[in-house]
Input
Amino acid sequence: MSSLLTCAEFDSYLNSIIMDYLISEGYPSAAQKFASEANLQPTSAAESIHERVKIRDAIYAGDIQTAIERINELDESLLEKDSALYFALLRLQLVELVRKTRADSNDNVLEAIEFATNNLAPRAPARQEFLEDLEQTMALLIVKPEDRSPELSALLEPKLRKDVAQRVNEALLKEQGERTKAKLVHLVRMRAWAEKKAREAGKDLPEYISLGLEQGKDGHGNSRMHSNGDGEAMVA
Output
C-alpha cells in the first residue's frame, strides 16, 4: 500500500496548514476568506481569534491596560497563574508611560514612578530577572536619550510590543488547548535545519533558496510587504 498522498489529500493537508497559521497568528479576515475559498469548516480556535486579535492590537497600540482587561475577560485566571507574563505586560505598561514622559511637555515622570512603585516593585523581588527588568526600565527615566546603550534604547522600539503580544497569544492558545506555534512555523524551521545540514555536508545548493515567506522580501530578495489585502499585516 502506497504511503504517498494523493493530489486531493495533499491539497487538503496544505490547506489545513495554511488555515492553522492564519488562526494561530491571528488573521481573521484572511482566515475567513481562505476558509470560504478552500471550503473549510471553522474550528473552535477560529471562534476565539477575534478576541486574541483585539488583545494583540491593543498591545501594538501601546494600550496595555486595555489588553490586560481583555485578557482577564477572556481568561480571568491566566495572568494570575502566569506571573512572568503579567510582569512582562506591566513592564511594557511602564515603558509606555516612560514614552509618554518623553512626548509630553509637562513631563509626567511622577506618574511612571508611581506606577512602578505600586505595580512592579512589589512583584520584582519574586525573581531576579524581574528586578533586572525593572531596574533597566527605570533607567530610561534617568539616562538621557543620547547616552543610552543600544540595549536600553531597544525598550522603546516596537519589537518589545511585538514580543509581548506574541507571548500573550501563545499563552492564550495554550490555555485553550491549542498549539502555541502554527504547523507552518515548525515546517519552516525544519526546512531551515535541513538546508543548514546540507550546506555543512558540502552539498551543491544555490546561495539563496527562498520560500517566499520572508517578511519584507520577495522571491528574489527584493523588499515587499505581506498583506492579505484587507489591512492585516502578515507576519512571516
